[in-house]
């Protein structure tokens, strides 16, 4: 057997080699594409940009970056406890380990986790080799400590064994802050958090209390010792003579000042402080300064019952509402020569939005503020290099170091092509003749495109080549200016719909859509917020004339949800999708063809047992499991993958074994009336939430972006796949009963009564709908099922909407809502109350009116307190992930036994993490069992939650919610 397998593999390799050589001899070389007019962007550039400083270096959840004194090196810390130095240079590949803090733990704590927050060099490092670190230590029940380490000399320093000296400690909690900075005065400034989790705000009520070290900026002298302390308290600290106060406190009233910055010319200290639900703050830190927390959140009153500290509250110098920022991260006060316009500016960014700003104190005492650039990074730290470089550190999108540089991009907003005919991609739009050098390609498996047909082209300026790889560790390399084109049409009706572009420039992929005019002569650039077009499609039934349908071109942000960093942005032009055989090629694939014509540098080879090998989902000759897994991979895995941006943490990548998909659980989003539901119930699609969500329109539809039409063949495929799985005893009972029902011959009234039994339950309706999509229900019975299903409650009705012409459906809001359609209507409290307690609105599932213990998110009254106007509230309902307040951010924990658990972070310490799941259950996880704890950009609140309501119903519901009043 082994010999035969080896022989077959050798034969396969020989055939592949022969194919490649033949292709090289016969395939024409791609001519250079010289006509590109896709340069820049349709909007004016920002004043600054980020550029990867060390493209070949990545870190694992890095937390801080520092210039190494007197050397061409940077020092980088990682959350897990490792400290590295790197040589500054674009070609740098190596990281030199300075220390792994886990190795410093005593034997009894071996295997425990640490959380390294920051590192700072002593101002006289060249003389004393002292490095200060702040980290969460697991000893004594867990605490945060600042320690001094001594480094060896030489070009690759390490920690001198046994040199750790603990300087100061304080209790650990959700907010540790932990930033270290030496001031112009030579003293060490230490930022501490309030030691609490997100809820309730300042749970220890410590922000105004100067008798402890929490929620403060500390100032100590580490070059002297005072009594039993490992440091001295400067004599001019504000509270050294205040009874019961801690003399180390320099300023207080802070929540979580994760990073601070010092102006080494003026001595000014600035702190970026993470707010609670509404505001992010930048404070100028002064002697005895009271920044207000928790009495104030920024300039807004929060907890008036808290006793104020000993000094007056000073408002922030800059505050951002959560519509602008969500987790501010401080940087340096810039004093380099490389960016002269930033001189004297405190530079800071936002971990969630990726925006970078500056604030500067002017000579008259006022403050100027500027937006420097918007990025895709999760900013966690900044530092200024010894040559004036301003470095920015990404936490976990890329784990890379970037440099802030002046934007040298010209303003291309006036010349960027507004019409497809102006792009240089096509010689003629009449027959979509591509320009010389623009080459067509096809993919192995098409994503569901609402029935549209796709044509694809690759456009590379000049004679550049794409470098692809099948390795997960290697990123593909695309030449500057590469454009990937996907044209969507309904060719049987001669309808051109949309042409989508992905444009690669300066390391960033930008999506654009061009929507075709009704005449099909040209397409116009779609605004970044997206748009839609009404279609009239000839009906199969001549009596009906035309079927009306809406085609939507997605917003830019919607495109980025699928074309995300975890998927490396490109979904179609990847090796496992380019295995499609070229027609009449004698075995040549798209990949070998593109390689032979010099569009791809080298065709990476896929092994015969490659788990990412895709097959045509609708090729009945292929194994059913392969077909279903290929379908789910192409349609769903860009979000549903480890590290993806899906709210519900299950995975649909084909290269993962089924037992690793994490589908044997509920979703937390809801079960929609399904009995004993799980994401996938082997043998029983009628209890499988995955099946339900891909079978319906409106709220809870998947995919919730990019599709507004149910894929009947896809539904039938997944139904057959789940039914084929070995199931539990009694699984599939509903489906079996339906099979019997479908086979019965009887009077219409009797058949209608039987169908009515099935549409009374979600599971029965789902089983019936699967047969409708599969085409196994008689026409008469189909009409009865659609009529009765469309009159059922909301969770069931949505399954039948797809069988009703769009113009005849209930006029619900759908996925893309103009807020004015709701705000323009007068709401009724009593009607809204009925909706609130019906299954048409989902608010009460997570938001109790006033009891926070019964809520997953904020209570209705908490929401009303924050948003006093419906015009302010509605955008957050329509786009719940637009800004996610920190207390309600979703976290996902991956445990060492393979479990994936998602929910709100209730508690985080060295001992345990407590998550509140969407089912309102508290899950306690030992810290040692957690391999990864990831914060999601997505809100736990689902998108499109109003989509099943009409505009009037939504207005009524909002009016009722407002009538519940605000929290006191």
- Please count the beta strands (DSSP E, at least 2 residues each): 42
The neighbouring-strand order within the major sheet is 30-31-32-33-34-35
Per DSSP, what share of the residues sits in E-state strands of 2 or more residues? 25-35%
* Rounded Rg: 30 Å
Summing up helix and strand content along with how strands pair, one would put the structural category as alpha+beta
Count of runs of 4 or more consecutive helical residues: 18
Largest sheet: 6 strands, antiparallel
**Alpha-carbon distance between the two ends:** 76 Å
Q: What is the residue-averaged pLDDT?
A: 86
Estimated helix fraction:
10-25%
**Uncertain residue ranges:** 1-25
Describe what you observe in this structure.
The structure is a single chain. With 968 residues, this protein is an alpha+beta fold. Among the domains are: 2-26 and 417-614, no CATH class; 640-808, no CATH class; 820-963, SH3 type barrels (Roll), CATH 2.30.30. It has 18 helices and 42 strands. The protein has a six-stranded antiparallel beta sheet with strand order 30-31-32-33-34-35, covered by helices on one side. Strands 10-11-12-13-17 form a five-stranded mixed beta sheet, with no helix packed on it. Helix 10 packs parallel to helix 12. The radius of gyration is 30 Å and the shape is globular. It starts with a helix and ends in a 5-residue tail after the last helix. Residues 1-25 have low confidence and may be disordered.
């Amino acid at each position: 057997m082994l010999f035969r397998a080896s022989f077959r593999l050798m034969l396969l390799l020989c055939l592949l080699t022969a194919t490649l050589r033949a292709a090289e001899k016969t395939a024409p070389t791609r001519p250079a594409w010289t006509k590109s007019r896709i340069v820049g962007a349709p909007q004016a550039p920002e004043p600054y940009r980020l550029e990867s400083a060390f493209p070949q270096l990545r870190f694992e959840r890095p937390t801080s970056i520092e210039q190494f004194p007197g050397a061409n090196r940077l020092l980088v810390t990682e959350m897990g406890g490792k400290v590295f130095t790197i040589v500054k240079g674009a070609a740098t590949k190596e990281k030199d380990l300075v220390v792994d803090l886990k190795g410093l733990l005593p034997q009894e704590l071996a295997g425990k986790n640490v959380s390294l927050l920051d590192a700072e060099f002593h101002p006289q490092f060249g003389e004393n080799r002292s490095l200060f670190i702040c980290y969460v230590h697991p000893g004594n029940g867990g605490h945060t400590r600042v320690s001094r380490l001594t480094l060896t000399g030489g070009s690759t320093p390490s920690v001198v064994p046994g040199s750790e000296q603990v300087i100061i400690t304080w209790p650990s909690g959700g907010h540790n802050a932990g930033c270290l900075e030496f001031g112009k005065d030579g003293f060490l400034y230490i930022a501490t958090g309030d030691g609490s989790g997100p809820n309730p705000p300042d749970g220890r009520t410590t922000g105004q209390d100067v008798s402890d070290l929490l929620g403060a900026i500390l100032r100590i002298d580490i070059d002297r010792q005072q009594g039993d302390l490992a440091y001295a308290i400067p004599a001019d600290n504000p509270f050294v003579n205040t009874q019961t106060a801690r003399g180390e406190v320099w300023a207080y009233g802070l929540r979580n000042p994760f990073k601070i910055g010092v102006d080494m010319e003026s001595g000014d200290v600035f702190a970026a402080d993470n707010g609670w639900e509404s505001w992010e703050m930048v404070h100028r830190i002064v002697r005895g300064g009271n920044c207000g927390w928790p009495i104030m959140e920024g300039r807004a009153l929060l907890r008036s019952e808290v006793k104020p500290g000993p000094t007056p509250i000073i408002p922030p110098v800059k505050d951002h509402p959560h519509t602008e920022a969500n987790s501010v991260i401080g940087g340096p006060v810039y004093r380099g020569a490389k960016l002269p316009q930033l001189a004297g500016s405190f530079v800071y960014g936002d971990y969630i939005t990726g925006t970078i700003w500056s604030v500067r104190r002017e000579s008259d005492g006022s403050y100027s503020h500027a937006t420097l650039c918007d990025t895709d990074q999760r900013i966690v730290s900044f530092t200024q290099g010894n040559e004036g470089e301003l470095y920015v550190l990404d936490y976990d999108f890329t784990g890379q170091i970037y440099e802030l540089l002046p934007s040298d991009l010209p303003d291309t907003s006036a010349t960027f092509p507004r019409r497809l005919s102006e792009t240089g991609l096509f010689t003629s739009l009449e027959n979509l003749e591509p320009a010389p050098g623009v080459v067509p390609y096809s993919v192995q498996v098409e994503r569901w495109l609402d029935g549209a047909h796709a044509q694809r082209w690759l456009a590379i300026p000049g004679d550049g080549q794409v470098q692809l790889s099948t390795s997960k560790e290697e990123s593909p390399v695309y030449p500057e200016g590469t454009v990937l084109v996907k044209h969507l049409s309904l060719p049987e009706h001669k309808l051109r719909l949309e042409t989508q572009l992905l444009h690669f420039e300066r390391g960033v992929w930008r999506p654009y859509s061009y929507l075709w005019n009704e005449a099909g002569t040209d397409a116009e650039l779609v605004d970044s917020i997206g748009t839609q077009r009404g279609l009239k499609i000839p009906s199969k039934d001549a009596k009906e004339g035309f079927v009306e349908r809406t085609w939507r071109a997605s917003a830019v942000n919607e495109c980025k949800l699928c074309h995300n960093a975890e998927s490396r942005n490109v979904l179609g032009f990847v090796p496992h999708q380019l295995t499609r055989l070229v027609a009449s090629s004698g075995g040549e694939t798209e990949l070998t063809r593109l390689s032979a014509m010099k569009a791809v540098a080298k065709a990476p080879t896929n092994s015969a047992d490659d788990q990412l090998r895709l097959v045509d989902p609708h090729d009945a000759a292929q194994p059913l499991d392969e077909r279903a897994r290929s379908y789910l991979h192409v349609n769903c895995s860009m979000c549903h993958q480890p590290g993806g941006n899906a709210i519900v943490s299950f995975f649909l990548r084909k290269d993962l074994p089924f037992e690793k998909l994490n589908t044997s659980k509920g979703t937390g989003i809801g079960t929609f009336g399904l009995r004993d539901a799980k994401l996938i119930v082997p043998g029983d699609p009628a209890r499988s939430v995955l099946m339900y969500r891909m079978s319906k329109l409106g709220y809870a539809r998947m995919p919730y972006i990019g599709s507004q039409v149910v894929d009947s063949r896809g539904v039938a495929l997944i139904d057959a796949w789940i039914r084929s799985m070995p199931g539990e005893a009694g699984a599939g009972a509903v489906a079996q009963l339906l099979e019997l029902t479908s086979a019965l011959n009887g009077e219409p009234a009797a058949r209608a009564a039987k169908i009515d039994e099935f549409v009374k339950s979600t599971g029965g309706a789902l089983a019936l709908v699967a047969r409708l999509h599969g085409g196994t229900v008689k026409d008469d019975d189909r009409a009865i099922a659609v009529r009765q299903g469309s009159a059922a409650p909301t969770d069931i009705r949505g399954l039948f909407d797809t069988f009703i012409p769009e113009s005849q459906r209930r006029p619900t809001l759908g996925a893309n809502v103009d807020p004015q359609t709701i705000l323009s209507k007068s709401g009724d409290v009593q009607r809204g109350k009925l909706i609130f307690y019906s299954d048409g609105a989902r608010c009460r599932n997570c938001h109790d009116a006033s009891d926070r213990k019964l809520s997953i998110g904020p209570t209705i009254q908490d929401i009303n307190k924050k948003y006093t106007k419906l015009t302010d509230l509605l955008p957050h309902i329509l786009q719940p992930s637009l800004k996610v307040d920190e207390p309600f951010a979703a976290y996902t924990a991956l445990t060492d036994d393979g479990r994936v658990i998602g929910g709100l972070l209730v508690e985080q310490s060295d001992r345990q993490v407590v998550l509140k799941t969407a089912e309102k259950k508290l899950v306690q996880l030992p810290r040692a069992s957690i391999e990864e704890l990831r914060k999601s950009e997505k809100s736990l609140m689902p998108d499109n939650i109003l989509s099943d309501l009409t505009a009037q119903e939504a207005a009524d519901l909002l009016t009722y919610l407002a009538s519940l009043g605000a929290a006191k």
